[in-house]
């Protein structure tokens, strides 16, 4: 029974690490999701610089400056379809985060400023680093959010009202400084901005966030380009690549961790099995004295090892799972653990294999012991 | 029939070697009951171990029913232990995790003749008067009871030769006599018994007493005829 406990401890350690690693992987994906969009869709504009020698005369834009908003569902369909296929899920809900925006240059209180019409629910998913320094995040169509710089430049604070091209909105919050373009912008709900500037059904760009371990960001971009005219989808290569790199590294790290635990666990099992066999040298001597052959003794220990491995494996799997429920939240603060049944069979197999390997050698050694030696040494 | 021919046993080698047995010769007939006595260190237990194939001889040979048993391979020894030679030890040497019945059953299990084995083991326990203790573990039994279980175990395979090393050494006088009666009964049933003891009380009940001193036979008394042999038998100078 003590031996089974040794096996159980080894298996528990391995199962706990694997289960935590497994759940941690999901957590890491969701953490990585915070690093902004990895694909951008813009209108397909051919921007030609008009130059005369070194003199820049301006630019000539050919094509449409906006994307029709009704393209958004089509883009979602392509992106979600590709992700579903890549990770093999049937889920019918929205998967990718798709945040359309409409940028308009305007003047507020005589100061020229950029107004961004946005979808508050989607935007906050992509820009998870956003923090509200004053007030709260907008929820209503008549509510606006100011960038830190925009707020100080306009002299408008949370609670004040703002007039955007004739639309009277309440500023409900100010963003904490982000160090990006966002600091200089006024954010108002998309529909409101579209109405204020007479650009109903139009957006300037669409940010897409589609991350999963196997998401084919580039091929999603390609299929958007092929099937939707008038838009240009670009995978944000750098971000996508470094994210994938990070995921691969984390995976490798977890694998190494599990392998080390496995080796340590196996050694724990080997040493308990060995000492258990050693303790029974006398019993082995007795069995030999009453007619047991070496083969019978070794076989007996193998059967026992299978039983010990089975009991230890089950106990270890259960306690390892319990342990991971305790440790997981400590490592990945507040991580919800999920029961990992795929480790049950390998855990049992491992426990039995290790128990057999660990007991056959000492049992074989013990079977060589001469009856006289083991019976006298008392 | 057991024949011991000029057996010597030395431990260690070179100048530090210690002679445990010196040129012992003995002839033991089937159905005999021999008590080997002598002071501590006289080589009694060594002689018994050699007869049982537990230890190798340094010189000489041991023949059991005409077959040399002093140079057997491990495999051949297993066969001898299953069919011909059984042991009873001073320390009982029962397996503590098994019940009395299971301990008695053990030799039959290893022989593979398990069919009806349980019944045979139960009968043997009955013969030694322990039928009510069959399901007790050795730890729950007294020393005398444990030794009776060990005797039942030694007889269950019907081995012709039973070797007992100080079987009464760990029990009181009265229990010792009871245990001896079991050996006497086994002897009457046809088993050859060779018993090492340093109790003269116990030795007196054997058919023959062999006394060892410093690895040599110094005295052999045939008690059936109640005659003390004048010759210090088998011991050649």
Helicity of chain A, as a percent range:
40-55%
Q: Radius of gyration of chain A over alpha carbons?
A: 33 Å
- The helix tally of chain B amounts to 7
Shape estimate of chain B: globular
As laid out across the biggest beta sheet of chain B, the strand order is 6-7-8-3-9-10-11
Q: Report the structural category of chain B.
A: alpha/beta
In the residues of chain A, how many domains can be counted? 2
Count of alpha/pi helices of chain A: 11
The chain-level mean pLDDT of chain B equals: 86
**What is the number of strand segments of chain A?**
14
Low-confidence stretches of chain A: none
| H-E order of chain B | EEEHEEHEHHHEHEHEEE
Note the overall shape of chain A.
elongated
Radius of gyration of chain B: 18 Å
Largest interface: A-B, 18 and 23 residues
Biggest β-sheet of chain B: count, sense, barrel? 7 strands, mixed
Low-confidence stretches of chain B at least 5 residues in length (pLDDT < 50)? 226-237
Sheet-strand content of chain A, in percent, reads: 15-25%
Strand segment count of chain B: 11
Structural class of chain A: alpha+beta
Range of strand content of chain B: 25-35%
Structure in words:
The complex is a heterodimer of chains A (378) and B (237). Chain A is an alpha+beta fold and 378 residues long. Chain A contains eleven helices and 14 strands. In chain A, strands 1, 5, 6, 7, 8, 9, 10, 11, 13 and 14 form a ten-stranded mixed beta sheet that branches. Chain A is elongated, with a radius of gyration of 33 Å. The two termini of chain A are 24 Å apart. The model of chain A has no long low-confidence stretch (mean pLDDT 79). Chain B is 31% helix and 27% strand. Chain B is built from seven helices and eleven strands. In chain B, the strands form two sheets. In chain B, strands 6-7-8-3-9-10-11 form a seven-stranded mixed beta sheet, sandwiched between helices. In chain B, strand 9 and strand 10 form a beta hairpin. In chain B, helix 3 runs parallel beside helix 5. Chain B starts with a strand and ends in a 9-residue tail after the last strand. The C terminus of chain B is likely disordered.
